[in-house]
Design a protein that fits this description.
single chain, mainly alpha, about 55% helix
């Protein structure tokens, strides 16, 4: 496994926000 990368998690969250409808509140 790769070492844990906080920026990678941030990218994952960003991609999830992009894929999900913008009805989610921040």
């Amino acid at each position: 496994m790769l070492s844990y990368d906080p920026t990678f998690e941030c990218l994952l969250k960003s991609s999830k926000l992009f894929t999900t409808p913008h009805s989610t509140t921040f």
